[in-house]
Each structure stands twice: as structure tokens, then as C-alpha cells.
TrEMBL record:
<dbReference type="InterPro" id="IPR038120">
    <property type="entry name" value="Rpb1_funnel_sf"/>
</dbReference>
<dbReference type="InterPro" id="IPR007066">
    <property type="entry name" value="RNA_pol_Rpb1_3"/>
</dbReference>
<feature type="domain" description="RNA polymerase Rpb1">
    <location>
        <begin position="94"/>
        <end position="172"/>
    </location>
</feature>
<dbReference type="GO" id="GO:0006351">
    <property type="term" value="P:DNA-templated transcription"/>
</dbReference>
<feature type="domain" description="RNA polymerase Rpb1">
    <location>
        <begin position="175"/>
        <end position="612"/>
    </location>
</feature>
<dbReference type="GO" id="GO:0046872">
    <property type="term" value="F:metal ion binding"/>
</dbReference>
<dbReference type="InterPro" id="IPR012756">
    <property type="entry name" value="DNA-dir_RpoC2_beta_pp"/>
</dbReference>
<keyword id="KW-0240">DNA-directed RNA polymerase</keyword>
<keyword id="KW-0479">Metal-binding</keyword>
<dbReference type="InterPro" id="IPR007081">
    <property type="entry name" value="RNA_pol_Rpb1_5"/>
</dbReference>
<protein>
    <recommendedName>
        <fullName>DNA-directed RNA polymerase</fullName>
        <ecNumber>2.7.7.6</ecNumber>
    </recommendedName>
</protein>
<dbReference type="GO" id="GO:0003677">
    <property type="term" value="F:DNA binding"/>
</dbReference>
<dbReference type="GO" id="GO:0000428">
    <property type="term" value="C:DNA-directed RNA polymerase complex"/>
</dbReference>
<dbReference type="Pfam" id="PF04998">
    <property type="entry name" value="RNA_pol_Rpb1_5"/>
</dbReference>
<keyword id="KW-0862">Zinc</keyword>
<dbReference type="InterPro" id="IPR007083">
    <property type="entry name" value="RNA_pol_Rpb1_4"/>
</dbReference>
<keyword id="KW-0804">Transcription</keyword>
Amino acid sequence: MSENLFSKKKIFFNQTIGKKEVKNVIAWAFTSYGAARTAYLVEQLKDLGFHYATKAGISLSVEDLLIPPLKDSLLKTAENEIKSTQNRYLLGEITEVERFQKVIDIWHRTSETLKDEVVDYFKLTDPLNSLYMMSFSGARGNLSQVHQLVGMRGLMADPQGEIIDFPIKSNFKEGLTTTEYLISSYGARKGVVDTALRTADSGYLTRRLVDIAQEVIIREIDCETHNGVILSSLKENGKLLIPLKDRLVGRVLLQNIYHPKTHCLIAQKNESISVLLAEDIVKSGIKEVWVRSPLTCKATRSVCQYCYGWNLAHGRLVELGEAVGIIAAQSIGEPGTQLTMRTFHTGGVFTAEIAKQINAPFPGKIFYQTNMIFREIRTRYGDNAWWVENTAKLRLEGENGKRISFNLTQGSIIRIKDKSWVETDDLLAEIATTTPSNRRAKEKTTRDLRTDIAGEVYFQNLEIDEGGGQVDTAGGSIWILAGDVYNLSANFDVILKNGDFIINGSVLARTQFISRYGGIVKIIDETLNVEVIPASLHIQNATISLEKTDQIDKYCLKFENNDSFELKIQNNTQLKNGQVIAERYLTTEMGGIIRYAGLDGKINKIGYEIQKPGSLLWIPEETHEVNTEFKTVLVKNGQYIPAGTQLLKNKKIKNQHSGIVELVHKKNFIMEIIIKPGIVLKVKNNVSFSKKMKRFIQPGEYLFSKFVVEDLRYLDYLLTPTGPILLLRPVVEYKVESPKTIITDKKNIISIISSQYILYKDGERIKSVQGIELFKIQLKLQIKKHFKYLPIKINFIPSKTNSLDFELEFLMIEAILPKNDKYFDSTTLLPLATAQIKILVKNNQLVKKGELIAQIEIISTSQGEIRWLGNNLKQTRRLLLITANQILTIPLKNLEKLLKKTNLNLGNFIRTDQNLIENTRIPHSGQIIEITSTYIRIRISRPYLISARAIIRVVTGDLLQSGESLALLVFERAKTGDIIQGLPRIEELLEARKPKDNSVLSTHPGFINLYYSETIDLKIESLYKLSTVLELQPGVFPIVSKNQFIEAGSSLSEGDVNVHDILDIFFNLYFRSRVNPLSLADAIHLSLQKIQIFLVSEVQSVYQSQGIDISDKHIEIIIKQMTGKVKVEEGGDTTLLPNELIEFQQIEKMNEKFSLTKGQLALYTPILLGITKSSLNTESFISAASFQETTRVLAKAAVEGKIDQLRGLKENVIIGNLIPAGTGFSAYSETTSVLNEDLKSIEVKTSSINSDIQNDTNSNLDDIILNKD
């Protein structure tokens, strides 16, 4: 290894170099020879790769995709297994859930076997195959993709995440069928969506991690701590995840290491562990090593060089000022996108718990060990098995004295009953490799059970809780007794009785239609649509004509008195009561003032609807809204101007009517120019005026005793520069009427009424130059109260006088036979029956109220026995017909002998696996309905096994169509790796969330005793003469055995571990429960250390499951930040308040000071904060406010008068300072332990560090660039 890379003596690696090996070679070169030489080696490797890649000319063709010949036989075996499982399901031996899980597992196992076969076939037949070389060298592709190309695509998930039990047997070379393509498209879309979500989640995780760790900077060389952590190989359920060697590299030793056998010194305290040293330690047989760790570093709000160890970028001790917190956050957050987010259930195949199967090596008899403790269970496939609760042996005794024993661990499952005979290769047991882990959590889920056949429901041995509709115990069945089921609407009357026998063409049910109103019958032949016309209205004194204008064509309704209305309805449409038929507006010449005379109206959406008749008075005036300066106006106040006079300079605005000018001004601007038509009266200056003078002057009235008014006028006055003037303004009077009927039919059922609406309120002034719509008249449809819910159809009838015009006709319609199939669903009737419609009246016939018009009959197309079990209260009733197809006759001999052997009674159920006749199987399960001397007759039936806790959705006697739901099966399934791994799991750990299904944890170490009753009680008897009884809830099973010794915090039942519970348990154990309790600070140190180690291993196991390597130190830095605070219980003589969160080191120092003055110390408990909460509770309020809840954080900081010391990176970036890391570290004025020492000690320390570095093989002096020669 230490040979020069460019010496004449070459180093030769005689092995296949794939992607992984290339990584290892480069890492070895970098560690041994430095960056420059490694760069040269990488160049050489690149040249070598391109040279031989060019020579090889590797390409990919269809012929390179080799499908293993064993595939067909594997698929055939799987299909036979599934056929057997399906037969068991049809017999009612297993539930739908058990069938589903078995099918899923069979296909998953087949797919995995085929995957292995693909690899073996390539190795055996064509090891230089392009596809094989590309995927297995790591150049491109992976085993999963190769498997899809030449194996089978396997099982896919539906959009809800459930596995579809229809596998894709084809591969991409063979091509997918249409069904397979559609199923696989779910997964493709899910993959795209997952990638987008994963990117966002991963980015947010990184942001939170950076926020919590950004202040962690290397600020000291050595914190001189005496604490550390024990490192060993990381294992999970017996599987090695990270070997000890990999965990040791880059760490610094806490104490000297001696060889366990020779006792020679291997390494010294505070020595950094290189790859060579790590190998030596592992070779010596040492399994656990004490190393320094960021978790136990004493440095305040930072980590020292020795506790951190190497900077993994260059393989040397980390430098002062390195922002290791940011590096840690990015190291954990960056691989987040590679973690799977898939949460669907794989069927629990190959769970880590059941790893080894024992098969019988020879035929023989099975014997259980006498002290074996076991309980009977039902496996996930519906088989009976026995769960072993303690370590025991299983013995197989064969012929000729052959004997063999098998060791069973706790949690193993025996598949054969005691003293049973087995054949060679029979499955005897499944051995759990370790004690079942608490990680094997379970979750409750449901599956819908639907019937495959139509028929009648029958319950067998079902115990149902009346309150919740749940099944109390397992073992019962729901039978469906076959029959043809007819869906009938509640409108149909069944004309048969139970037990009636019908033939083809018999009438089953009938519904009749009568007329509720009477009238003229209209039959539309094409659709057999029957209508009765109770009333009609034909308007003969008005015609409809088409008026064409430049803008739009419209229909107008013209009456004989020349009143014209715009039509608002269309031909062949249906109208309802109160609908507008036509309308017209009354339009004025210009704007003006509106006044009511004797009118009364109520306001609505349109305007004021007239309730009391009267007059509408209109005073016309022309208003120009100009908003201009005085100097631009060409007319004066009080001036009379003829029509067409220009009003403004530079603008062509002219008045359209003659009259007196009134200027309305605001400050120096003219807002409006009003032209008021009328007669001007000059008056003397001594006449006084008031607002009361403004009034209406009636015709014939004398004004000033001289002037007679001939028509209705409005007296107005104006103030002009020359003096006041009186103006007699014209008034237009409109007579307004209340709603009235203008036309009605002979029976007074259909009427047309006229309603008038004024569009403006009394006294309103309407500013306009053009004419306005003053009020409108609407013609509305009015129907008599008793008939108002019937629709009215409108028809345009050609006029007899003018071929271009039309006349209006209104027809009231009572629909007898609707166009849609409201009364029956033809899809459920055919091919069982047909519907026949009979019309009992003729077209244009006059019918009376209550007369029968038509009827629909349901005609049977088969023959059989009627069973009507319909419910009159239901919307849809059902009729059951038992035909010859549902009856099976089985001929028998020696019936009396058979009756003695079997329980053949009327009403009993028999299944297809019962051998009534020798060597003959019954083709169908069923219920015995007849027994004679020569045969028995059964009604074909189908059993469905129901599991406990299922929710039943039917009752005995219900009639069901095929595909309808029987029950909701509730079951537990093991959460597989797919569910608990990945980004969601990382978030759950780092946010310290409490799991849904908690595992029961032991409160102290001791021996276990189990007591079974309705619940399971666990008694833990401790060495400290303590005993605790823990009760397990129903459905929760223990994962420990009797007399087993367990540690504190161990899982006693299945479920997820709550980290907060572990912390509480250990703190209580160390501080409160012990005979000799530890000090508060030591108890917190130890209890925090327990959960720190637990969290590190949990996070590592998630990343390792996805093949991602992250150094422990990165995770440790994050977890140190999560566990750095405590919660104050009692403040003592300090200024702290209860429930306040404070740094652990800070409160320790405070208590030390108070202990010297003999003051009352603060009491506190350990607390675990998630990364979000920890970020918000940081010392720096600037950093916390820039993360989340800005207003709350800043308000709280202001109230408390906080001071930010600007220790971290974020707060300095926000303020605009130099960051205290890297080159900015020396400018940082924080007092550290390094700065407290004198200059000499610093020189000594730094020189010792430098000497270590110079002696290291990574010397910078050797790292020079060499030429090829």
C-alpha cells in the first residue's frame, strides 16, 4: 500500500472492476497518495475506459435480451398454486383477505425467483452480454430494470397504493397486453408525481436541518471531555448494515486500545483512526470501541476538533472554523430525493422476521418438546399454525430409527400439529432469526368483500354485535343461495305470491298510469311517449312576426290595437308559472325628472312593480355632464338657446332641444349644462322666490292673476345674472295600470297578465342627453294554483292570414309515460325478463280525471319458482326466481348407509370437497332442498368465510345482485419496509413525532412473567425488588417469553417505539427508581445518551436500506442539537420559570454557582425537541425569526428584551457581518477555551497537531503533480 504509485514496482488488482470497485480504488489512492496523484490515476482510468470501450463497440440489440427458459415453468407453478388457493376460497375455507395475501405473495416470490434466474442465466450462457455488463458494472441500469426487460414486470399498485393481484407476466421484450399496459400506467404516473413531491419534501428537510445546525462550528482543538460513545457494527434483525471498520474511520479514540490477546498497545488516546488502523482494530477481534463524539463534546454551542475527527473531504483532522453543522445538514438532506416515498403494501413478502424455513428431510412423525409454550394462530394465508413463545426444539422421528431435531427460537411458527405424519419436503416450521422486533409494527386496514353470484343471503355461525354490526368471533360464513334477482321500482305491484311457479311469458309485475287532471290524449309514436293536455290557450288577437335590424333579428308580438312587444320565448320550449312571455319599454326623448301621482308599487329586481294605478309625470330636460372650466363654456346661466347651439369651445357638443340654460358648478368648474325646455316668464325684481314656488300647475289655472295655463306644467325658477326668471316647463303624463289579465282560456287555467314596472324612484333626476327607458310592460304566464306544477309547452302556429306570421299556442302537459326509463332498469332485467308497455287510449281521445291511460308489465323469459322478499319501504324492491340452472340433482345409491355416515338433512349445506359418492366430487357447494331414496337435490350456493371484527353490510334474507358488497373485512397487516422507510420515516425521527401504535416498553430491567385472561398481563420482576404489571390491550400480542430477561426500555409488544417514552423511562430509572439514584445532571446525561444512540442507529438504518452511506458524525451533530435543552420544573433561587426551555450546559453552570452559595438549585427534566421546534427555540432570535413564525418570535424577543450574540452563520448574514467560519473565524470575538490558554500552550498544541499531520501518509509535501515520464 505504501509503495509509490509511480514506482517501477506496480500494484496489480486481479479482479473484475465494476463501479463499486472503481470507487474503492480511487478512495484507496486518495487516502494513500493524496489528491494530485489520485487525479492523475483518474485520468489514466478514464483513458483506459474510453480506449477499450471504443475497441469493444458495445451495443444493445433485441437479441441481447435473453429470456431464461425456466420462466414458463415458474409461471405455470405459480398459476397452479393460485388455482389451489382459489379453490380453497370458493369452498369458504379462507377469507378474501387471506386469498389476496396468498396470491400477492405467490407472485412476489415468483418474480424474485425469476430475477435470480435472469442473473444466473446471463452468467452461465453469456457473461459478456452487453446488457449484463452494462447493468452489473454499474455503468447504466440496474437489476430491477433488467428483470423488467427479460423477466417479468411483476405486481403493480393501483392509484390508492393497493397492490393489484393481477401481475404483469410479460416483459418488455415480449411486449405487454392491453390490460397489462393499462395496469402498468398507474405506476408510471405515480413515479412522476412521487419524484416531484420527493424533491419538495427533501428541500424542506434540508432547510430545517440547516436551520438547526448552522451555528455548529469547530471553535476549539480539544474540549478535554472524558465521555464518549461506544461504536460497534450496526445490525438490524441479524443483518449487517454498517461494519465496525467503516464506522471507525475518521474518528478519534477516547482511550488507549490494547490487543485483547497479546495486550499490546494498538492505538493511543486522542489518535485519529485511519483505514489501516481501523483494519488492525477489527482484525484484533475487538467488537466495541470507545470513541469521541459530537454527542458528548463539552464545547459550548460548538464541537471541538477531536470530538469531530476527520474532515471526510480530505481525510485529515477538521480545521478550526469549519462550519460542520451546515455540512451535516446537507449530508443528511441531499440524499433525500433518493429515498423512496412509496407507501403501498407489498404483501409483506420476505419480512425480516421469518427468514428460514424448515422442510422435512425424510418422512416421519413430528414431536413437540414437552416444555414448549405455544398458542394456536391462523396464518396470514388462512392455515392453522402454532406460535412458539419460548426457545424449544422440534423433533422428527422417521423409520429405521432416523431422528433429527430442529432448534426453534421465540416467535417461530410451527406448521404441523404435534404427533402428525409428514412427507419429505413438507414445510415444518418457519424460524424467526431473532426475537421479533418492535419495528415489525402492524396497521389496521380494510377490504371489501363482494359476492360473485346473485341470490339470497344466509348467515351460518355468525355472532354479530347488535350495536356496531361487527362480527365478534371468526369462523362464521355468509352463504349466497343462487337465484335470478330482479330489481323492481317501488311503483310496480308484484302480482304473484311466494312459491308460485311461472313459465316463459308470465307477467311478474305491473305498474299502471292514470291521468290526475283529464284532458286530450297526445301519443308520440316514435317514443311511445303519452301526454294528456288538461288545458290550452290560443292567442288569436296577436301575431308573431320577425323584425330584422342592423344589429339583431328578433321576434315581435303585435296585437290588433298596434301594441308591439319583444318576444322572450322560443318555439317548442317548456314554460313555468310566472315566466315572462314578452315585454316592451316606454322611451322618452331626453333625460328629466320623474314624479309619481297616486301610484303605489313594491320594489323587486326589475324596478317598482305597480300595485295601485295612477299617473307617472315626466319633466323633460337635457343634461350634458362636461366637468370643465368656466372659460371654455360658450353659454350663460339663464340664456335661452335654440337646438343645435355649440356649448363648449374646441368641442363639438351641441344641444338637441331648445330651452333655458342652467349651469351647475362646483368651485371653479362647470360640472353640468342643463337645457330646460319651457315658457319663460319675466318678473319684477321686487318679487321674492322660495322653493315652495316650484310646483305643478294644473290646466286652466291662473298665474299672477293674468296668465292662464292651458296644459299641465311644472313651475320652476332660475337665478340669472340679469335677475330671477320663472319657467313653465312641459310635463308628460303617462297612465300606469296595476297588473291585469289580458287573455285567458275557457277553463281559466292558463292566463296572460300584464305587469308594469317603473325603473326609477319618485323624484329621481335622470341625467341624459338621449332618450331613456322610463318603464316597461311585461306579459307573464299565470297558471291556476292547482295546475301550477305542470309544464306549459309553447308552439308557434302559422297564421291563416299571413304565411310569414305565426300565432301563439300554450299547451299544458301531463306526462304519462316519461321518455327515460324511470320505472325500470333494462340492464338489470335482461336477459331475465322484458318490459312491455301497453297504451290503453287513442290519440286525441278526451279522458276524464282518474282514467287509466297505460301500463308497463314485466314479462319473465325463463321459468322457475318465485321467492318475493321485497321491502315496500325501499326505493328498489327485489324479486327472486329460482330456475332449473340453480338446482343440482345428485343421484345416490345406498342412501340409508350414506345417512348413517354423514349428516344429510334438509337445509344442511354441503361443499364440493365432500365425497358423497366414491371417487366423485360434487361439482358445486349448496343447500339440500330435497332428499329421496335415489337422489338428493341441492340449491347451488357459495360460501364466504368471515373474519373477526368484520363489519356486516347485509342481513339474512337480503337479495343481492352479483358484485354487491357483503361485508367490510377488517384485518391487521405487518408494516413492511416500504411503509416505514424513506423520507416519511426520516421526518418522523428528526421531528421526534409520537407514533400512532405505541409499543409497550419495560420500565426497568427484570424477568418477564405472562398471565393470560381476557387481556394479557406482563409482570416484570426487577433485581431491585421492584415489580411492575403492564396490561396489553386486546389484539396486542407480546413479543417476549416467560422468564426472559429484558432491559429497561425494551419493547414488550408489537408496535413503534416512542422515543419520548424511552427518555422518561431511563430518566426515572436513573434518578428516581434506583436504590442509589444518580445526580440530576448524570441521570440526564445517561438518559439522553440512550435516545441519542437509538436515533443515530434508526436514521442510519433508513439510509442504509436504500443503499446510502452517511457518516455517523453528521447525524450526531443534528441529534446533539435536538437533545441540547432541558425543561425547568422548579426554578429554585434562579430567575428561571417553570416549563421554560434552557440549554443543558447553561443550567448546569447556574446550579454549580448556586451550590457554592448553598442556594436552592433549579430542578429540570430532559426533553427531546424535533428539528422545527429546536430551530424556533434557539438562542438567536434573528435566526429563529428567519425560519418560521416571524411575528411571534420577534414579539416574544421584544417582550423578553433578548440580546442576540450573533454566534451562528444566519444571524451574521442577515445583519451583514462577516460569518464566523472559514476565513472569517479569526475575526470572531467569542471567548473560547483556546483563547483562554496562554500563547505558549497554543504553540505546543498546534505544533503537536502539525507533527501528527507530518507523520501521516497524507503529507501535503508528498502531494505534488508528477509528469508521466
